[in-house]
Amino acid sequence: MTTTNAFQDIKPQRPWQASTKDKLISSAIFLTSVALAYGVVLATGLSGKLGMFTSFVFIFIVITAGRSYLQFGSALAKDSLVKILVAVGTFLTLIPIASILFEVFSKGYKGLYPGLFLRDMSLNSPNDPANVGGLGHAILGTLILVAIALDD
Amino acid sequence: MSTTETTYVIPEKRVVTTKPRFSDKVFRGVVTGGGLSSLVILGLIFGFLLYQGFDIFKSQGLAFITSSRWDITYDEAGNVLSTEFGLAAMLIGTILCASIAVLIAVPISVGTSLYLSFYAPEWLKKPMVTIIDLMAAFPSILFGIWAYFILMPSGAYWAKLLNHYLGFLPFFKNELRYFESSPFIASLILAVMIIPIITSISREVFAQAPLDRIQAAYALGATRWAMIRAVVIPHGRNGVIGGAMLGLGRAMGETVAVYTVLNIVFTINWQILFGTGGNVASLILLKFGEASAYEIKGLMAAGLVLFVLTLIVNFASDLLVRSFGSKGK
User: Which residues on adjacent β-strands are paired with residue B83?
Assistant: First the structure.
């Protein structure tokens, strides 16, 4: 005898989640804005990454907020405007971090080698390549300083 | 039948006292000592700076704050002939850079913390919080070098754009067309440095917004922005102001990053795009290495001025936070 659960075929509905159609529309808006921004960069005096970024944000805001205004009215238009502004703020926060991490790793990876943390610079001359000697003295000193400061 | 004599023993009166036990006293003493020690250290720093800089304050008087020259002449034996110490350019530069940095950083930080609190999907939230906290822990010399090599070219380009389109405003004038090492670029790097601080403070404040009111707002049909405006912002305004003031304090005391970027010149400069500026902390770093014993006294006096300035900002922020004392609608 097999028991069947009467509810097993019923999928929970999540009407607040974006449907596939919504996702398609929003990615289409995104791509259109990128293309239009590129067009603006080609056609007008705005140039470079800054011009591309500003015109993209402006066009994206106009399209998205305009669409929700026409569809749902001013409250949702404001909501989508704030959503974009907030995301832009986050993007601006992340740019310096990404840039710093990228520069540090892309410029510094050549100096990384196993002895870096153990050896010191006592036998080095100014013209040595990056993988002679190491940071051992500096790391030891930092550890000592921090240990005393925390111990106190 | 025998009568049993029951004697009632009246117990001694229980002594109720507020006198603490010995162990309590010891603990209280240790904790009070720990709490007061920071105050004592602060007082000692103040006293040391005042003691070292007293001669300078006596000889320069009010000109120490109002003039903007830093000259010291010696005779051949190395004795000090005449001195002229004035911090006006440095003070104005410090306040200018720090306030521009806060103006740039606060909107970005509030946006970021709102995004992290209410918009970001869960899988994105945790790594981003970690990364932004990591940024708060970067050493300031790293920011300085990054600003010098990476930010400076872009910053000078943005400064040229600002000058080209908004050059009619007095702040954006730049007659000599020198855009590197300007207070504008120093403000940018200060903004980058204080964004993580303001972001994490605002995020914590926004996270404490009362959940019942948030859900009530949603239940009444509010959009996310309407909910934020009605519940989160009134509740979190104090915290954001406090975070901004903390950022201002950090920006005013920042030494190495500004020293790396800024071109320190003893002229009062209100044109933020022009490549001369001043900063008290960086001045001390600049002069300290080769200062004579008398000039070091001048630097100590400069340190005292910066110390007092930071204290004033902190008290002002306390007052400001208290005057916006409402806790939401």
Answer: B72
pLDDT in tens, B19-55: 888 899 999 999 999 999 999 999 999 999 999 888 8
B/e letters for A61-75, b = 16+ CB within 10 Å, e = fewer, are bebbbebbbeeeeee
Q: Could you give the CA distance from residue B114 to residue B202 in angstroms, rounded to a whole number?
A: 8
Task: Enter the tokens of residue B308.
Answer: 């007092």
- Most A CBs within 10 Å: which of B112, B122, B162, B229, as the mutation test of the A interface? B112
Task: Inspect the interface and report whether the beta carbons of A93 and B195 lie closer than 8 Å.
Answer: yes
Predicted confidence (pLDDT) per residue in B142-175, tens digit: 999 999 999 999 999 999 988 988 888 888 888 8
Using CA atoms, how far residue B67 sits from B64, B84, B106, B152, B296, in Å, is 6, 9, 32, 30, 18
* Residue A3 to residue A15: CA distance in whole angstroms: 31
- Residue A103, sorted as left (phi over 0), alpha (psi -120 to 50) or beta, turns out to be alpha
Task: Give the 3-state secondary structure of residue B83.
Answer: strand
> Are residues B217 and B182 in contact, defined by beta-carbon separation less than 8 angstroms?
no
Cα of A4 to nearest chain B Cα, Å: 35
pTM over 0.80: yes
> Could you give the CA distance from residue A28 to residue A36 in angstroms, rounded to a whole number?
12
